[in-house]
Structures are given as C-alpha cells and as structure tokens.
Design brief:
InterPro entries: AAA+_ATPase, Chromosome_initiator_DnaA, Chromosome_initiator_DnaA-like, Chromosome_initiator_DnaA_CS, DnaA_C, DnaA_dom, DnaA_N_dom, DnaA_N_sf. With about 475 residues, the protein is an alpha/beta fold. Helix content is about 50%, strand content about 10%.
Length: about 475
C-alpha cells in the first residue's frame, strides 16, 4: 500500500494509519450499534492515504453508494478528529473484487446489481444465479385483476391495488398495506399487481412471504452472503411481502426488513405488504416499523357478504362451464362464510366431481362430496337460529315467530321453523311450543304434520325446506 504524507515534516506510517482506522471504526461502531455496523460497515477495508485524502474500499458499488449516503459525512468527521492530516474520505469499490453480473432475475424481470463481492464467489458458496432464482416466489398467473370479484367489502383495497399497478410509488400509496382475514383476497391482489407491472418487462418485482424472507435471510447469514441478499432485494422496483405478521417476535429479521424498507422507499421504489391486522394492531412489531408501514396507504378487506360470495361462486361456476344450480350456490354461500379460498375450493371439488362422473350438481351430491368441509363448519343448532334463518328466508320479522298473527305469509314460515326445530334439535314439543309464543304442544304437532304433508306435493316448497335444513345442519 502506498502512503504519502500531507506535508514534508509529518508523515503517517502504514502502522499508524491502520491504528487510526481502527479507532475511527470503533467509534463509528459505538455510535451506530452492533447490528447496524455488522449490516453495513464491517466490509470496509482501509485503502491508501494520498495527500490529505484517505481511501476506504468496499466490495460492491451498491454498498459504496449506501455507505457514502448514510455515513460518508460522519466518516470524514471522525477521520479529521482522529488524524488531522486526513481532511477527506474517498469511498471506492475495491478493484478486482467484482465479477460481471449475469442477466438473471429475482423474478422474471428482476434487476440484478452490477457487482457482487468476489469473496463470496467461492466453492463453499452456492452459485449466485441459484440464490437469485430461489430468492422470490413466482407470480401466479391465475390471480389477475380480471379474475378478482369486486364487492363492497373489498372495493377500496381493489381500487388501491389498481392505482399502484398503474402508477407505482405514487405519493400517498407507498407503502401499500393490505390487511384482512385469511382467504379474503390479499394475496390475489398482490399477485395481480405484480402481473400487471411485469407485463411490459420494464419493472422488476420480487414477491415472497414474510416466512420466506426470514429463511432466506438466515440462509444468507449462514452462507456469509448477506450482502448479496440485501443487494438483490434493494435492487428491485417493487418488493411485496405477504403475511407480515409472521415476523412478530423475530427481532433480527424485523431489523433487516426495516433497513430494506427504508432503502427502497428512499430510492423511490414501491413496497406492498399484507398482514392479518392493521399496522397499529400488529403488536410485536417494532414501533418504528409499524409507523413506517402505516405512513402510506392502508386498505382493509372486510369479511365477505352473502352477495359477494354468491358473485364469486357464480363467476367461478360460469368459467368452469358446469351448471351449478342457484340453490347449491346459495347453500355454499351460507355455509362457508369466512374464507373465500375455502369457498372456491369447495366449488372446485363439486365441479371436478361432476366432470369426472358425469353427474349433475345437486344439493344431495354437494352434501356428499363436501361432507368433510361442511362438518368442519357444523355447529349446534338452536331454535333461535332456526327462527332467524327461516325469517330471513321468507323475509318476515323475527318477532312474527312468536306473534299471534295467522296470515299465511307468517303462519307458514312459523310452521316450517317448528318443523325444523323438531327435526334438528332434541327439544320436546312443549319446549318448542314455548319458544314460539308459549304455544301448546299440539300446535307444534300440527305444524310438523302440515309441513310434511305440503312437502310431499309441492316440490318447490320441499326444496326450500330442504335448503334451510342443510344450511342449518351442514
């Protein structure tokens, strides 16, 4: 290493320069902390001193630019305080420490950094291309905006996703934080955004679950390739992390994600995150991370309504080409209410069963094919629930179940509710009668017999009662 003095009478030996550098490094480490130092600064190598300028070498251009932007001024101040002969600090990429970057991708069109540390290209490390190809998950081509059924519960999240897909990194929409329960469409929207952005091949997108982010981070630490990991993620235009709640309680991974988040947002790149709760409710995440996640656009996806579930099922059934009766769709929409993914899976099983065996889809076959799913949703039926479901079905007031009104529009549904209470509960006739306005047990007996009689001669009426029974019974 060539060293020269800043003046003729004062010279700095190589040994002294190394000593100065160690003191500067220790002070900087004390200021930024162990994690920050290990993340960004540990790979700095002392270079030559020429005149009043000392050179510090870094293995990659990305790392050089980052250190220059974040710590350049502070390094210069520390050097001046430690060794007055040094007035300037030059950060350079170490020559011979880089290899040409192959045109590979995190996803199909991901941007790859220009340089990678030569030290990491050794026989003991996994190939660079292998790491990159394995870094992110592929986008599912089935999840597009066209295949996403929009309703009141998800229209806001859909609109925000559309906006980000059209104009990524727009003010107010970065980061985009989508949250909601399991199976409500968060992942679908993220894939749709990614597919839309990568259509032209000009935008690089990396999508992965928070779990995968953590395991890749750990693997990078073990293989001493953390800088590659950082550079790959921080070189993309859009980073999407699914199920962020997985990082709760994983402090080191949160730390890494926090720095990645800052690096991308500072560079004007788009961040899209999903979780099961809003940022403010994600207790267990560091406050600084929760604050940043909530500083962009936060869009929630509410639980589906009956109408939205019907729309989803109708769209899927139409696309399949299999005729699915409306009563079957209503039955599924009533029985499977919390998870769209499970709802679609149930319909897919019915369609597959119909195609494989050439049989029509009916309520009976639905209950047979989906017995395991329906059993999981089974619950103890109460008379109150029967009354409520029957009242909703015939659009009468719940109070009419116990009122004295005898109009057929009210009396017939009340008789059906009594019939179902007898069929689906273990209550005695007097107990059922008391639940219906303290009626006598003979009134209940008459209702049960009357409903059974009508069901034998009126197919439509029988189907209505059967539908109600299946919805209540599962």
């Amino acid at each position: 290493m060539h060293l020269s003095a800043a003046s003729d009478d004062v010279r700095v030996s190589g040994e002294n320069l190394t000593h100065h550098w160690e003191r500067v490094r220790d002070r900087l480490k004390g200021e930024v902390g162990e994690v920050e130092y290990r993340t960004w600064l540990t790979q700095i190598i002392l270079g030559p001193l020429e005149e009043d300028e000392v050179t510090l070498l870094l293995p990659t251009r990305f790392l050089r630019d980052w250190v220059r932007g974040q710590y350049g001024d502070r390094l210069q101040q520390l050097w001046r305080a430690e060794c007055p002969l040094v007035q300037r600090v030059e950060l350079q990429v170490k020559r011979g420490a880089t290899v040409p970057t192959p045109v590979s991708a995190v996803t199909a069109s991901a941007v790859i950094p220009d340089e990678v540390p030569a030290a990491q290209i050794s026989t003991s490390q996994p190939p660079v291309a292998e790491i990159r190809n394995d870094l992110a998950a592929p986008l599912d081509p089935r999840f597009t905006f066209d295949s996403f059924v929009v309703g009141k519960p998800n229209e806001f999240a859909y609109a925000c996703a559309r906006r980000v897909a059209e104009k990524p990194s727009s003010p107010g929409f970065n980061p985009l934080f989508l949250y909601g329960g399991v199976g409500l469409g968060k992942t679908h929207l993220m894939h749709a955004i990614g597919s839309e952005l990568t259509k032209g091949g000009q935008v690089s997108v990396a999508y992965m679950s928070a779990e995968k982010f953590m395991y890749r981070f750990i693997a990078a630490i073990r293989s001493q390739s953390t800088m590659e990991f950082k550079e790959q993620l921080r070189s993309v235009d859009v980073l999407m992390i699914d199920d962020l709640q997985f990082l709760i309680g994983k402090d080191n991974t949160q730390e890494e994600f926090f720095h990645t988040f800052n690096a991308l947002v500072d560079a004007g790149r788009q961040i899209i995150v999903s979780a099961d709760k809003s940022p403010s409710d994600l207790s267990g995440l560091e406050d600084r991370l929760r604050t940043r996640l909530g500083c962009g656009m936060v869009a929630d996806i509410h639980a589906t309504t009956f109408e939205l579930r019907i729309s989803i099922l109708e769209a899927k059934a139409l696309a399949s080409g299999v005729t699915v009766p409306g009563k079957v769709l209503e039955f599924l929409a009533h029985k499977i209410t919390s998870n769209v993914r499970e709802l679609e899976g149930a319909l897919n099983r019915l369609i597959a069963h119909a195609n494989l065996f050439g049989r029509p889809v009916t309520l009976e076959s639905t209950q047979e094919v989906l017995h395991d799913i329906l059993k999981a949703h089974d619950r103890r039926v109460t008379i109150e629930e029967i009354q409520r479901k029957v009242a909703e079905h015939w659009n009468i007031r719940l109070t009419d179940m116990s009122s004295a009104r005898r109009a057929r529009a009210v009396a017939r549904p009340r008789q059906v509710a009594m019939y179902l209470a007898k069929q689906l509960t273990s209550r005695s006739l007097p107990e059922i009668g008391r639940k219906f306005g303290n009626r006598d047990h003979t009134t209940v007996m008459h209702a049960v017999a009357r409903v059974a009689e009508i069901m034998e001669r009126d197919t439509a009426f029988a189907e209505d009662v059967e539908l109600l029974r299946r919805m209540l019974e599962g």
